[in-house]
Design goal:
The complex is a heterodimer of chains A (327) and B (266).
Chain A lengths: L3 E5 L1 E2 L2 E2 L1 H15 L5 E6 L6 H8 L3 E5 L9 H15 L3 E5 L2 H14 L2 E6 L1 E5 L2 E8 L4 E7 L4 E5 L16 E4 L12 E7 L12 E5 L9 H10 L3 E4 L1 H5 L20 E5 L5 H7 L4 E6 L6 H4 L2 E4 L2 H17 L1
Chain B lengths: L1 E6 L1 E3 L10 E2 L4 E2 L6 E3 L1 H17 L2 E7 L5 H10 L3 E5 L9 H15 L4 E5 L10 H9 L3 E11 L2 E8 L2 E8 L2 E5 L12 H9 L4 E2 L1 H4 L14 E6 L8 E2 L5 H14 L4
Parallel strand pairs in B: 1-6, 1-8, 6-7, 7-13, 8-12, 9-12
Antiparallel strand pairs in B: 2-5, 3-4, 9-10, 10-11
Helix pairs in contact in B: 2-5, 3-4
Classes of the chains: A alpha/beta (327), B alpha/beta (266).
């Protein structure tokens, strides 16, 4: 029996896509073993969230209400979860592999003396062993990792595990659990949040992603990529080379330290195909590469390739797509 | 300001696929004749340290855990401008998981002596666990700022730019603390000057082992691993790129659009 605790987060009133994917992993572990899935929400009751979490796979929703848990610092989340995990008695703790989760999970594992798998892209159970899969060497390898002592903690790589089948109308139990948090527990403090406005589709949810790399040689060509993305109702991404050069915001980065995307169509423009970039987009169904260098590694990954200068190829390509869309 | 930067030497991650070989016994990549580099984000961490030293003065010590060859990574970071280096190496450390590595590094940081700031890259280019910064903070009992790209120190307070999914946060914390560094256009690693490379080559880098650090055998090496790495496979990926030809860029573009329509992708 594998009991799972999922650290859940709300986005726009419902569970975030990352949370639904973590619930999908949790159901895969608990379902076959008659275990239970608990979703812990840090930071106060959100109306309408509990039914969505039940439908997404949770049996119990735990509300952890403390002011310090509102828009929380990782240190506050760790302090809360250290108390909650033993009380719930979960064998497996899952959370999203996002910037916050990547700090919370190691610190929680350290305090609970638990094992930790980051960027889990698959889960399973074999006898008494809980199995995780994750990539190694920037996606060149796939590792299978077994946990035989519990609790074990894992962060779930976005867009790698499907959400559970929706359980329409499924009702679970809602519980409030007290958490003791002294102000001195949290030693870091946010002074300011700077959010970039998302125009159109969110990169991590987009069905079509148009990405630019070093080959664009500057920020201006990204306007062309934006135009193409707009025509295809997609989003624009970038490689680390492009964000390091300051051409576009860091939040556009796709790759090991950026976002993981798995769109139906990924168009890589002037992207060489560095391992660190491939790690974030190898799950795309169809990959198109436009690059002047026929030996660029991206062509090993791409399904369709155009060897040519994007400056000459993109305008007629955009025109052709518009014409096809109108026909 | 006393800064320690942890760097990891890895096999060049950007080698062509056909040169990547896995050793089935150790489940690790075979070095062969491949070149060794400092993991990319660790170089950004060195750059951040150098910028801080330019403003606030102080010393930068580069710390690396690895094989004896990791001396090369330390020397190259010293060539960028770091003042000193320490190599931590012991056959007993081989096979350690991230918890073991963080424990060893923490012991070495203590031996170096009470730094104000400990910096790491946010992820290594090989195993990519992204754990070391936060684990070091736990080992040392310090606060942590993860995935930060810029740091300013005012008196005993650090103000950092912490990257989030949809932007960033300006966040503050008290010294001493641990920060893991993500790259942005403000911390692109500088080129080493020849005279600094020569000066680094002449400096002696102390080498510490398990006994020097008082590291217990049970916490490190394969015996200290919390999880079982059961299997590592290289998924077979066929190169099946269909090159879309054409006499002119317009022809290529139109054929590409038509092919995508045929494949029902658009």
């Amino acid at each position: 029996m594998v009991d799972v605790l999922v650290v859940a987060e709300a986005q726009g009133g419902g569970p975030s896509r990352n949370t639904l994917e973590a619930l999908g992993a949790a159901r895969a572990l608990a379902g076959g073993t008659r275990g239970t899935v608990t979703a812990a929400v840090l930071g106060g009751v959100v109306d309408g969230l509990a039914p969505a979490l039940f439908a997404g796979g949770a049996d119990t929703v735990l509300w952890l209400e403390r002011p310090l848990l509102d828009g929380p610092e990782p240190e506050a989340m760790v302090a809360a979860l250290v108390q909650i995990v033993p009380q719930v008695g979960a064998q497996v703790v899952l959370m999203a592999d996002d910037f916050r989760g990547r700090e919370v999970a190691p610190r929680l594992a350290h305090r609970l003396q638990a094992g930790l798998v980051t960027e889990a892209s698959g889960v399973g159970v074999e006898g008494e062993t809980v199995l995780f899969r994750r990539q190694l060497y920037g996606g060149r390898c796939l590792a299978e990792i077994g946990a035989n002592r519990f609790p074990v903690i894992a962060t779930v790589k976005p867009r790698s595990i499907e959400p559970a089948a929706e359980r329409v109308g499924h009702r679970g139990v809602e519980t409030r659990m007290p958490v003791t948090l002294a102000g001195s527990t949290v030693r870091t403090r946010v002074l300011e949040r700077v959010s970039e406005e998302v125009r159109g589709v969110r990169l991590e949810n987009a069905r079509v992603v148009v990405s630019g790399g070093r080959g664009l040689k500057g920020p201006e060509p990204f306007r062309q990529l934006e135009e193409l993305a707009q025509v295809l109702k997609g989003a624009v991404g970038a490689t680390r080379a492009a964000t390091d050069a300051g051409w576009v915001p860091l939040s556009w980065q796709v790759g090991q330290t950026g976002k993981t995307v798995s769109p139906d169509l990924y168009i890589a423009v002037g992207v060489s195909g560095a391992i660190q970039h491939l790690a974030g987009m190898s799950g795309a169904k169809t990959i198109v590469a436009i690059n002047t260098d026929p030996d660029a590694p991206i062509f090993k990954m791409a399904h369709l390739g155009v060897v040519g200068d994007f400056k000459a190829v993109l305008p007629p390509f955009i025109a052709a797509i518009k014409a096809l869309a109108a026909s | 300001m006393k800064i320690v930067v942890c760097v990891k030497q890895i096999i060049d991650p950007e080698i062509p696929t056909e040169q990547f070989k896995l050793d089935p016994a150790s489940k690790r990549q075979v070095r062969g004749g491949l070149s060794l580099v400092i993991s990319a984000y660790d170089q950004n961490a060195v750059e951040v340290a150098l910028q801080l030293r330019e403003k606030a003065g102080g010393t930068i010590t580069v710390l690396s855990l690895g094989a004896p060859e990791a001396q090369g990574a330390i020397k190259s970071a010293m060539g960028m401008g770091a003042d000193a280096g320490v190599l931590v190496t012991d056959p007993a450390f081989v096979g350690s998981d991230s918890f073991g590595v963080a424990h060893i590094l923490a012991q070495a940081v203590r031996k170096i002596g009470n730094p104000d700031l400990v910096l790491t890259g946010c992820v290594s280019g090989d195993t990519g666990n992204k754990m070391i910064g936060p684990l070091l903070a736990e080992e040392l009992g310090l606060p942590c700022l993860s995935f930060v790209s810029r740091l300013e120190v005012n008196d005993r307070t650090v103000v950092a730019r912490r990257i989030m999914e949809d932007g960033y946060e300006r966040v503050e914390g008290p010294l001493p603390l641990v920060a893991s560094i993500l790259s942005d256009d403000g911390n692109v690693p500088r080129y080493s000057k020849l005279k600094d490379i020569m000066a680094a080559a002449r400096k002696t880098v102390p080498v510490w082992n398990a006994a020097d650090l008082g590291v217990a055998a049970a916490k490190v090496g394969a015996a200290g691993r919390r999880l079982d790495l059961r299997d590592v496979t290289v998924p077979h990926r066929e190169s099946r790129c269909e090159v879309v030809g054409g006499e002119t860029p317009t022809e290529q573009a139109e054929r590409l659009a038509l092919r995508l329509r045929e494949l029902k992708v658009i």
